Amino acid sequence: MTKSPQQAIRTWMDIFMHRSMRGWTQYAKGTGLSMPQVSILMQLHYRGACGLSAISERFDISNAAASQLVEKLVQSGHLVRTEDPSDRRAKLLNLSAKGRDLIQQGINERYQWMDEVAKTLSAEEKVKVTEALNILTEAVKRIENRE
Amino acid sequence: MTKSPQQAIRTWMDIFMHRSMRGWTQYAKGTGLSMPQVSILMQLHYRGACGLSAISERFDISNAAASQLVEKLVQSGHLVRTEDPSDRRAKLLNLSAKGRDLIQQGINERYQWMDEVAKTLSAEEKVKVTEALNILTEAVKRIENRE
DNA sequence: CTTTTTAGTTAAGTAGGCTTATATATATGC
DNA sequence: GCATATATATAAGCCTACTTAACTAAAAAG
After folding, report:
1. Residue A46: inside a domain, yes or no?
2. Whole-number Å distance, CA B88 to C1' D29?
3. pLDDT tens column, A15-52
4. Number of domains within chain A
5. Phi, psi of B92 (to 5 degrees)
């Protein structure tokens, strides 16, 4: 069973995409938050603080919709909304400790699955996998800097 | 910047998880279907035909909710619902060509992103990445067969 | 055969996300 | 300084997902 690089990548992507999508939707359900709400927290976790319009642009929803979702997350204590000192019309949205923990917990559950996978690898295989994922990570960084 | 295998895996997972989540939610929006609807199609794509109760168990919703979602997907022509000949109470849910295309298109868009990444790799790097992803794919298969 | 369980549908009602329209406060351009 | 543009919030209303409850039909158990 010799695979081309493209086949190898796609096979792996299929496994990983399906797993992580499933994991996140199930995790979201367990938190009591809706998927859009969790997505907003995730966004802030990965990209850092931002204003409200950045949220509505990212998720392609109206400002009104973003404002309402954010309001719920502020109410539930997952988000902190402060006035932007450099522009008093704008708000700065930050994860609270509670929001950060919620997302980190979801990420950790994904990690755990991969840890199980990694545990079954030989030392030699681990070295190879590590090197390859570093290569991919660097490649993505190069592309993103170029954009 | 020397990374442990765990660090390398987690860094890569972060990038890939966030990307694919974002990609799928955006894609779902473009199709006009809701995320739960797309998730059902995705489930059938990856796991093959099943009955209605398998859907409700997998997504942890009531049979009634699953039945209503499936009904919409049948109406929109993404799903074919037939009677199970071996148990006439049960239904067999299958993707239609339209449903299969919709999911495959979403997967292809994810593939394209990775193709862009792979394109920037040297021949030597491609070999390493291919080998590593094959190792991971095999490891997952071993674990899943064990369960 | 009769009873009970299983698979799925249908109906009514709740909750959440989304939209458009409207309002408010601040910043920017002339 | 005044008109306009920008960042956000609020309100009304629609649509969808979800729930529980009531129902049909077929299988399984006795």
Report:
1. yes
2. 18
3. 999 999 999 999 999 999 999 999 999 999 999 999 99
4. 1
5. -110, 125
Domain hosting B85: range is 16-146
- Burial tier of A138 (Cβ tally within 10 Å: 0-12, 13-18, 19+): middle
Q: Which spans in B1-147 are helix H? A: 5-31, 35-47, 52-59, 63-75, 97-119, 123-146
Inform me whether the pLDDT recorded for A88 exceeds 70: yes
Please state whether strand D lies within 7 Å of residue A71 at its CB atom: yes
Residues 84-103 of B with CB under 7 A from strand D: 87-89
User: What percent of chain A lies above the pLDDT cut of 90?
Assistant: 93
- Exposure string of A38-73, with b = 16+ CB inside 10 Å and e = fewer, is bbbbbbbbbeeebbbebbbebbebeeeebbebbeeb
Q: What is the pTM of this model?
A: 0.93
Q: What is the CATH number of the domain that holds A136?
A: 1.10.10.10
Q: Is residue B9 part of a domain?
A: no
Asked if B16 contacts A142 with a C-beta cutoff of 8 angstroms, the reply is no
